[in-house]
Amino acid sequence: MLWVENNLWVGGTGDGLWVCDPVAGRARRVGQNTLTDQRVTSIVRAGDTLWVGTARGINRLDLRSSELVPLPASINAPYALGGFGVTDLLVDRRNRLWIATETGGVFLLEPGNDKAAMRRISTRDGLPHNGTNALLEDAQGAIWVSTDDGIG
């Protein structure tokens, strides 16, 4: 869940992304035919963008235009997750998007570069395990990753 400008954004475990207006008492489904998967796992805001993680990838929602764009799942696309399911999202103090995945380690996307190559961080780079569960930025700006075999 995420509160953005008087609206509550909610991700369902099988019914996708919803935006709720509690004052008007209305809710509507967003991206029903566009999301990479209807199992939403994480939502995070970066400026005028909502990043929506699902069980099958990542999606970018422009809050100004309401355009929802799924990022490619093909491992051959340089800015893709390769079909890995997203478990957590974090936007750090430098406005970089960190993406934890079920079995692919962590991916890092620099701000404004959703068409650029994502950097993958895996066991080859020192993570204890490629199954990653949660992300945290500490007071010094270091990023911590909870994995299936410890913290990295």
SSE layout and pairings?
Layout: E1 2-4, E2 7-11, E3 17-21, E4 26-30, E5 40-46, E6 49-54, E7 57-62, E8 68-70, E9 86-91, E10 97-101, E11 106-109, E12 119-121, E13 132-137, E14 143-147, E15 150-151
Antiparallel strand pairs: 1-2, 2-3, 3-4, 5-6, 6-7, 7-8, 9-10, 10-11, 11-12, 13-14, 14-15
Task: Explain this structure.
The structure is a single chain. With 152 residues, this protein is mostly beta strands. Helices cover 0% and strands 47% of the residues. The chain contains no helices and 15 strands. The strands form four sheets. It has a four-stranded antiparallel β-sheet, with no helix packed on it. It is globular and about 50 Å long. The mean pLDDT is 90.
| Stretches with pLDDT under 50, minimum 5 residues | none
What integer is the average pLDDT? 90
Rg, nearest Å: 15 Å
The beta-strand count equals: 15
Q: Structural class of the secondary elements?
A: mainly beta
Major beta sheet, specifics? 4 strands, antiparallel
- For the termini, the CA-CA separation is 26 Å
Q: What level of helicity do the residues show? A: under 10%
What is the overall silhouette? globular
Percent of residues in β-strands: over 45%
Q: Count of DSSP helices? A: 0
Q: Can you write the helix and strand succession as a string?
A: EEEEEEEEEEEEEEE
Strands in their spatial order, largest beta sheet: 1-2-3-4
